[in-house]
Amino acid sequence: MRRPFIAGNWKMNLDRASAVALAEGLVKKAAGTDGVDIAICPPSLYLDAVAAAVAGSNVALGAQDMYHEPKGAFTGEISGAMLCDIGCKYVILGHSERRHVLGETDEDINKKVLAALEVGLLPIVCVGELLSDRKSGTTMEVIRRQFEGSLAGISAEQMQQITIAYEPVWAIGTGEVATPQQAEEVHLDLRKIMVQRYNDEVAEVVRIQYGGSVKPDNAAELIGQPNIDGALVGGAALKVDSFIGIIAGAGS
Ligand code: 13P
Fold it and tell me: Does 198 have pLDDT greater than 70?
């Protein structure tokens, strides 16, 4: 059985003091929770401070992005090795805001996924359709293209290190959550893509998170679907009680 995985994506929010306070609050309230993997992904600048706050706890640290080159003249960028150095276990790659606001392509994301695996980071690779894709009936075409492009050249063994996050763009930060049936349909299709591309074992072990307006009151029903293995949470990850509420929903 796949263990539920709840990750908080703090995006470009909080200041140093509130990031540390949030991490400390989560560590306290999540202590003793087992059966659910938990991670938080603060802004890069606060990773170090948050790493200290979560050290020795069951809350793991993740980054929101990284650059694919290991080092050198890449002003403003951060490498996978640097993320490992400060204690990151996970890295979110190909988030819709990076795709649609910052212009990242599947090819860019693919380079990052390969580089992350190279240094032992566990990638959370995001895919998701725009509202216009859903309206025109091309959701699965878009998801398949993102999956194949972002994960080109990934072996069956490497695939098992990866978490997929299905985040319909129209549901991110809008309060408009996909219905459990809508999300489950895409998750099931993603699993079928993995069976075709890899094998049954890979499709069985890879976790697929849902992301997009997940809140304590909708988490349990979403995560209760057979192919939804957790959540990638934005807004509701910025408060201790709502994030803990979602974790509780995943464990129920
Ligand atoms: P919200 O939970 O705020 O909709 O954000 C989802 C998301 O983008 C997580 O990566």
Answer: yes
Tokens of residue 242, six digits: 């709502």
Ligand 1: centre distance to CA 231 (Å): 9
What value, to the nearest 5°, has the Cα angle with vertex 211 and ends 189 and 35? Answer: 90
Ligand 1 neighbours (beta carbon < 6 A): 9, 95, 167, 172-173, 211-214, 232-236
Report pLDDT for 143. Answer: 98
- Closest residue by CA, ligand 1 atom 1: 234
What is the percent of the chain with per-residue pLDDT over 90, rounded to a whole number? 98
Retrieve residue 35's tokens: 């059966």
What domains are defined for the chain? Answer: 1-59 (no CATH), 65-227 (3.20.20.70)
- For 15-44, write each residue's pLDDT tens digit: 999 999 999 999 999 999 989 999 999 999
Give the range among 104-108, 125-129, 158-162, 248-252 with minimum mean pLDDT: 248-252
Helices (H), 31-169: 47-54, 80-85, 96-100, 106-119, 131-135, 139-150, 156-159
Residue at token pair 């725009």? 130
Name the residues annotated as catalytic. Answer: 95, 167
Whole-number Å distance between alpha carbons of 29 and 196? 41
Atom of ligand 1 nearest to the CA of 213: 4
